[in-house]
Amino acid sequence: MNSFLLRQVARGVLPVAVLFAIYLLLRGHDAPGGGFVAGLVTSAAVVLHALANVAPSERARRPRVLGSVWLGLLVAAGTGLVAVAAGGPFLTHSHFDVGSGPATIHLSTTLLFDVGVFLVVVGSTITTLAAFAGGENPR
């Protein structure tokens, strides 16, 4: 599509969508949200960018995207394997606090799992989009 209005909207939506996706990703281990939903929000913004012809060229994007799928799988599976190595069941998550007093930050391995899921969702969506748009094998 070659629409001036669509290009301008796509340019404005992408940063807002990415910020919202980060918010969803960070709150996912304590409330509804998480890596899958954040990945869908980011993927929707990337698809809008692609429809508006604002996205970078496919050649420049493809190697990083395919790598993100494998990195995401590695991170998600790694969080489960860490639990197994510690003697617990697969995907048993650990919680811990960093800092003290009012500056205490509550962290969990669930956040790492969500980051892995996010990378898989965004990477696979963009790879599928590139395959449909280009009509060629995305490997």
Distance between the termini: 26 Å
What structural class is derived from the secondary structure elements?
mainly alpha
The total beta strand count reads: 2
**Can you list the strand order of the major beta sheet?**
1-2
Give the CA-based shape: flat
Strand content: 5-15%
Taken together, the total number of domains comes to 1
Please characterize this protein's 3D structure:
The protein is mostly helical and 139 residues long. It has one domain (4-133). The chain has four helices and two strands; from the N terminus they run H-H-H-E-E-H. Strands 1-2 form a two-stranded antiparallel sheet. Helix 1 packs antiparallel against helix 2. The protein is flat, with a radius of gyration of 18 Å. The two termini are 26 Å apart.
Quick description:
By secondary structure, the protein is mainly alpha-helical. The chain has four helices and two strands, in the order αααββα.
Features of this protein?
single chain; 139 residues; mainly alpha; two-stranded antiparallel sheet; 4 helices
